[in-house]
Amino acid sequence: MLCWGNASFGQLGLGGIDEEIVLEPRKSDFFINKKVRDVGCGLRHTVFVLDDGTVYTCGCNDLGQLGHEKSRKKPGWSAVSRSQLTPPE
């Protein structure tokens, strides 16, 4: 997966990079051998949903809003169940 844009809160999930703005697409090694189904981006957060329903989040985590206590710079597993991702019928 290629990522670029504002990385000031770690919302690109690229890890410990020095740049706050990534001007050219950069490969994310985190998702090697993982199949990303959906990506949701906000001002300070990003959510990745894998094909198997696993959810990873990265970005600003000042209030624990990412659903995990891990570093905000690399995507971390978020405690979201598959049923929470299924829209009501």
TrEMBL record:
Keywords carried by this UniProt record: Repeat
Region (Disordered): 68-89
Ranges annotated as biased composition (Polar residues): 80-89
RCC repeats: 1-52
A Pfam short name: RCC1_2
Residues annotated as signal peptide: none
Name this polypeptide is given: HECT and RLD domain containing E3 ubiquitin protein ligase 4
Annotated source species: Aotus nancymaae (Ma's night monkey)
